Amino acid sequence: MIFKNPVPNFIYMMYRRFRYLYLNDTTPVVASIKVTQRCNLRCTHCTWVNKVTQDLPLQRWKEIIDTIYDRGCFVIFIEGGEPTLREDLSEIISYIKGKGMGCVMFSNGTRDLPDADLNAVWISIDGTEKNHDAVRGNGSYEKVMRTLERYPEKNIFSMTTLSKTNTSEIESICEELSSTSLKGLIFNFMYPYKDISSQVLPREERVAVARELMGLKQTYPKIISSDSYLKTVGQPDKICYPWLLLLATADGNITQGCTVEPAEERNCDVCDMMCGLEATLGFELYRDSMKFWNNFNILSYVDIDRCPDWTLRMSRINRKLDT
Ligand code: SF4
Ligand code: SF4
Q1: How many domains does the structure of the chain reveal?
Q2: Assessment of whether the complete model's pTM goes beyond 0.85
Q3: How much distance in Å is there from the Cα of 82 to the middle of ligand 1?
Q4: How far is the CA of 175 from the centre of ligand 2 (A)?
């Protein structure tokens, strides 16, 4: 039995924590839907593009969204491929919002954004212009910058996945992106999928880069990745709850668990991806991670800064990697 009318607020999170802690309820909390696997780009690190070429019809996605809602998720991340290639994207977003769930979209930022009530948009930016274009194709960076200029009022964030190709220019990335209309900069560490494992930073370098980012926040306050996440990078005792996530792939297959698994068997020892770790820390009520999620207006309408420590401590426990 789960809460049938999820609302994106603190009360629902506390309710789900209560059920997790005392009733061992590991039904999912957030969902990710790959509404298409088509893409207008051919990024060098992409493991997903064009593996499924036929999009599911709108009605099928509505049924999947119904299932996601019934299973207790209160926010849906729309991803791809490139979601904006779907002409009915605004209808998918409206359907999600109409059910009272939050909705965040991932995009490569090279196309018009939908005229829809999104909580936030995450645009992948892999470096300064030269490096970004080397990964995503010539002219991609310029298109992203035009997109940011076109939508200064939207709640748009950059998502930079760190690898051997871009860590040497982190400060330049922060400087350039801080001068745009982006509302915040998110950093992630590349997962060593089989095809791209040679691009992944060794553990010691990931730890060093994470520490560097914590320091850079003083100069570039638009960096919103939480210190709690950055401190877990490379640590053997990090916590990650893959059951938090419900994933619908482009062929409509729904699985619960780690985002790696539809592609290959997961290896948590070498994973520092922000999605699973930051979600887990938010669910564990780490204040800075909750504030991270609050940037997208999906976790809570309460002011986390005004919550006394005891309210957060009361509900927090640490468990080792869960399955
Ligand atoms: S924009 Fe995303 S889906 Fe498209 S090719 Fe690049 S990584 Fe793959
Ligand atoms: S740490 Fe989390 S996101 Fe990473 S592979 Fe393990 S379960 Fe998946």
Answers
A1: 1
A2: yes
A3: 7
A4: 30
